[in-house]
Amino acid sequence: MQRTLVLLKPDCLERRLVGTVLARLERKGFQIVAMKLLQVTEELASRHYAEHLEKPFYPQLLAYITSDPVLAMVLEGREVIATVRKLVGATNGILAEPGTIRGDFSTSGQRNLVHASDSAASAEREIGIFFRPEEILTWKTDDSSLYLAEHEK
Ligand code: CMP
What we know:
Elements: E1 2-8, H1 10-14, H2 18-27, E2 31-38, H3 42-48, H4 58-65, E3 70-77, H5 80-88, H6 101-105, E4 114-116, H7 120-130, H8 144-147
Antiparallel strand pairs: 1-3, 1-4, 2-3
């Protein structure tokens, strides 16, 4: 089973869309194995968004991601990394397909509600930035047959 890091970003909390967004991820069949509400510091932002540090939009991105709390979580499930990216949609809410989270709730290229890891390497790196190993819980419900065929478990 894969794991991915998802951040519900400050605009998601400010707009009280946490329940709505979380429901979309949860009802797909993914399992929450870690979650915390936190205020992102400049240092944390620079580690998480290391690849964007030199981009012209980084100062605005930093101001945005540190402006209010984020809800960070680790989701676990079959092909969870690519599938959550599909559920979230393209970075810019204007370009994101209707039916995706950004496509339905955002018209912004920056205030796009959600961050989700884009690859297995990113997921491993980003999970390590936000969570200590002991904060990630291993638990299983016995309802996997509702979501997966035997050979997919
Ligand atoms: P995220 O998926 O968290 O990855 C990097 C973030 O930077 C992105 O979502 C947006 O919030 C922000 N971002 C990406 N491109 C731009 C841009 N051109 N201008 C402003 N913010 C951007």
